[in-house]
UniProtKB/TrEMBL annotation:
NCBIfam families: daptide_MTase. Residues 66-164 form the Methyltransferase domain. Signal peptide: none annotated. This is Methylation protein MtfA. InterPro entries: Daptide_MTase, Methyltransf_25, SAM-dependent_MTases_sf. Coiled coil: none annotated. It comes from Nocardiopsis metallicus.
Amino acid sequence: MTAALAPSVPPSPGLAGRTIAELGERARLSDIYGPDGADVYHDLSAGDTGEVRELVRLVRNRPGPVLDLAAGSGRITLPLLALGRSVTALDLSQDMLLLLTDRLAQAPARLRERCSVVHGDMADFRLGTEFTSVVLGTTSVSLLTPGSRTGLYRSVAEHLAPGGRLLVSCLDRGEGPDEAVTEAIGASGIRYRVHDHWPVGADHRTVTIMPAELPQGPVQVCTGRVGVVGAELLTTELTSAGFTVLERHLLTEPGQRHRVTLIEAETTR
Ligand SMILES: C[S@@+](CC[C@H](N)C(=O)[O-])C[C@H]1O[C@@H](n2cnc3c(N)ncnc32)[C@H](O)[C@@H]1O
């Protein structure tokens, strides 16, 4: 099994790193998908629905069971269940899956009963069943090393039904400085400061999330270091792995810092 999550919290560069240094022992550092970070990630991402709408539109065209890879707290899983599909939600983080399980417990039984939650590694899984759609959203392919991505493509090809589709999103860097600092409001109403440190040409970027207003006492700081997998690289890798790329849907407006592309591919195996 190949774990994409860093075993320890990566150091934050730039302004985020300087802020953490100034906080000293008040900074409570955690991995973005770990026990503390999972709640923050879930809170922040809940309102981000653009990609989910596009994924649901593409899956709707193709009846049959769906595999949601790196499903996390179920931001994509729940809309797929609402489409009336059986969905298998796979993730490496028990903390994220706990959030998903909680959400399923509160969902109507007709949705909950169609969901299988699997603790596993998207780079190496064997589920003993086939899917008409395999979804890997939120540009989470960039959480894997190049070697792990080979395992991902092999595992996906083994689980796609004939004529099935892989829908995978990826991220290219658009305009902007090395470090962008934005303020975002979570579904809970909490305001966060999000640092995205991504110099041009770098092979990874570092995302650091802290409260918008730093409190006097302990300050929770979540950090994730992720690789960079853009549309050209992903297309090349998928082609070498025996996939045919059918469509590339650009999901963001030109001129933005992040260019998200949703790639639709089928296996020629
Ligand atoms: C950016 S979050 C996306 C979660 C969800 N799809 C969403 O849209 O909110 C990335 C997820 O990938 C998971 N992850 C990281 N490495 C993984 C791996 N090797 N296998 C499965 N899941 C992994 C993390 O635990 C996290 O839940």
